[in-house]
């Protein structure tokens, strides 16, 4: 066993051991020994996996009975399943053991040894042991172990073999709570169509009012005639509706006015007839008003005894009757009508004979054809 205390004493301890290895007969073949610890750094006493590859470059078949990995204190791992390696072929085996203690601060030394078969009276028996070259491992001593559980490590680390190591995550994941946690997203394809991936989170696209989100980008909105882009979608344009309705109504009124002003019926335009009808209606209302006033005075005459009052009511009655007659003549003239003096029927002003009672009228027409005459009853 080596005695540690200085570089000079370490060299003096290792040199005889190296000399022994050099003098040991070597196996005919190529050997490659590698190792892999379960943690990023090999920790003293932790698990280590040894990988040994044997390649036969000689003509004879190599027959391996046992493989051992040793340090200065003895065997630290071994493989005891015999196997053969034919000419120009190779064979790999793996076996595990414990990480040896460092002999020089953080350096541990190892060397592989092989036990081969040999023939004894045509029988294969284990031959002498032959060892290979010396190598070193970087080992973290157990005396500087920092943790006993994951709780002693940061959230993105894990306690392995007594040390805190960063958790290694693959794909769209991050280290958290001592394990790998998947991100919400790592690319836009992980989000819905109207969202994008930002800092591993799906956020809604912020597009202008006349754009909408689709396929993780902002696209232009194309709205209809009576629509307007608002809040990233097409909404009804009430102002356009109102303006269009107003324009339609205005054009309808203009067209109606032009039609009434130009279309004639019986020698008069419809517009003229409407105006005459309104004017005649006004005169009829005035006539009825005067007749009502005259009727009031007529009723009062029935109860009056005073001569002055009788004269007053008689005069007023006649005055209102005259005014009513004037208003009647006005609307009859406007409508082209006349009143029969006998039966009081209202007939066309052009007739000479009343079609109702046969009385002679003051009209200017000579025709007495009653089939084409309009009759208006009072």
Note down, in words, how this protein is organized.
The chain has helices at residues 7-23, 238-262, 270-301, 307-335; strands spanning 30-37, 42-43, 47-55, 62-71, 74-79, 83-85, 90-98, 107-119, 124-131, 135-140, 157-160, 163-166, 173-176, 179-182, 195-198, 201-204, 211-214, 217-220, 227-230, 233-236, 264-265, 268-269, 337-339, 346-348, 375-376. It is built from 4 helices and 25 strands. The model is unreliable at 1-28 and 365-378 (pLDDT under 50). The protein folds into 5 domains: 7-143, Immunoglobulins (Immunoglobulin-like, Sandwich); 145-182, no CATH class; 188-218, no CATH class; 263-335; 337-378, no CATH class. The protein has 378 residues and is α+β, with helices and mostly antiparallel strands. Helix content is 27%, strand content 33%. Strands 2, 4, 5, 6, 8, 9 and 10 form a 7-stranded mixed β-sheet that branches. It has a 3-stranded antiparallel β-sheet with strand order 1-3-7, with no helix packed on it. The chain is rod-shaped and about 175 Å long. A hairpin with a 4-residue loop joins strand 8 and strand 9 (124-131). Helix 3 packs antiparallel against helix 4 (307-335).
